[in-house]
Amino acid sequence: MVMSVHELRPKAGETTEKITINLGVIDLGQIDLLVQEGFYSNRTDFIRTAIRNQLVTHNEVIRTTVARKAFVLGLQHYTRRDLEAVQAAGERLDIQVLGLASIAADVPPELALATIESIVVLGALHASAAVKAALAGRIR
């Protein structure tokens, strides 16, 4: 069975996830000052740059942990055909992804239950509401 793994950082126009953070007013003011002075185009640009710099700083820890815990790094997509092949082989999946795990919209909850033993996603899981509900007890 062949499943695709893609680059971890999305390129412009690709899927991103929205997060919310709380910052103190002094930190926020300092960010606004850097934006005003032209160092960054906006607050989001500053925050993304800061996050990427921290990820580079901790890159070795991330790589060794991903390898040790057998995570797929990037995007892992499961189609109905993939899961039907798993079912035909009498196997079950333990999905571990650092990035984005997605289950195709045409996958019925019954097929997901029959083929997915567990899901650990550090990042985001995209699946239909019905599949997420069916797998709720298996998602960690």
3D architecture notes:
By secondary structure, this protein is an alpha/beta fold. The chain is 43% helix and 22% strand. It is built from six helices and four strands; from the N terminus they run E-H-H-H-E-H-E-H-E-H. It has a four-stranded mixed β-sheet with strand order 1-2-3-4, covered by helices on one side. Helix 4 packs across helix 5.
Query: What's the overall geometry?
Result: elongated
SS-based class: alpha/beta
Strand order of the largest sheet: 1-2-3-4
**Span of the ends, CA to CA:** 24 Å
For the sheet with most strands, the description reads: 4 strands, mixed
Order of SSEs: EHHHEHEHEH
Low-confidence stretches: 4-8
Give the percentage of residues in beta strands.
Answer: 15-25%
User: Roughly how many Å is the radius of gyration?
Assistant: 19 Å
The overall number of domains is 2
Helical amount:
40-55%
Count of helical regions: 6
Q: Average pLDDT, to the nearest integer?
A: 89
How many strand elements?
4
InterPro entries: Arc_rbn_hlx_hlx, RHH_8, Ribbon_hlx_hlx
Protein name: CopG family transcriptional regulator
